[in-house]
Amino acid sequence: MATGFFAGHIAAAMPSIYKDGAGCGACFQVRCKNTTLCSSKGTTVMVTDLNKSNQTDLVLSSRAFRAMAKPVVGADTDLLKQGILDIEYQRVPCEYGNKKMSVRVEESSKKPNYLAIKLLYQGGQTEVVAIDIAQVGSSHWSYMTRSHGAVWVTDKVPTGALQFKFVVTAGYDGKMVWSQRVLPPNWEAGKTYDAGVQITDIAQEGCDPCDHHIWT
């Protein structure tokens, strides 16, 4: 999933940001506070993994780390040598232009008894907190369970074409986003399908900006 997004500007985040996987896919603007080497703009990263270290809030890819440098020859290399930096960061909406959200069927899926999916290109500033699944045209919905990270699974896979309802955080509450036809009857593991919808909502949360530490 990770390296194709944001040109490799990705990060692992501490548990309070990763939120047992609910924070996977969240976007943050990050800038470092070394005025000699760091630009005032910083860069935007997407959280793709859990940072198990208690030393830092975020572990940035080297590409993202270097992107915080001033646009001066050699500044990115000098910044990378610092290793650990004082930074400030804040959550920002993920933006993918006109691209719709997609559903990727994970390789672990085994038709017809087991389905594992991952959401890609989820816009806005939200978290998916529940997913329901049903056959297209049916009102019999069943819930999926978060397996790990951004992966949701079910061992009660409906037959035929499949539709989804995504419950996401929005404002101070939540909302349901209905994707009425996503997976075809002959869905295949390893393939990605257009969800036909996009999320643009902004969830309200505290702490912005935050002063913390990161490292590469």
UniProtKB/TrEMBL annotation:
- SUPFAM superfamilies in the cross-refs: Barwin-like endoglucanases, PHL pollen allergen
The lineage's top-level taxon is Eukaryota
The residue ranges of the Expansin-like EG45 domain are 1-99
- Domain Expansin-like CBD intervals: 113-195
Q: Which InterPro entries does this chain map to?
A: Expan_Lol_pI, Expansin/allergen_DPBB_dom, Expansin_CBD, Expansin_CBD_sf, LolPI, RlpA-like_DPBB, RlpA-like_sf
- Asked whether the UniProt record includes Ion transport among its keywords, one would answer no
**Main subcellular location of this protein, as a coarse class:** secreted
Asked if the Swiss-Prot or TrEMBL record annotates the protein with the keyword Cytoplasm, the reply is: no
Subcellular location(s): the record lists: Secreted
Q: Which Gene3D superfamilies match?
A: Expansin, cellulose-binding-like domain, RlpA-like domain
Q: Which UniProt keywords apply?
A: Secreted
Q: Give the family this protein belongs to, as stated in its UniProt record.
A: Belongs to the expansin family.
Protein name, UniProt field: Expansin-like A2
Tell me what organism the protein belongs to.
Answer: Camelina sativa
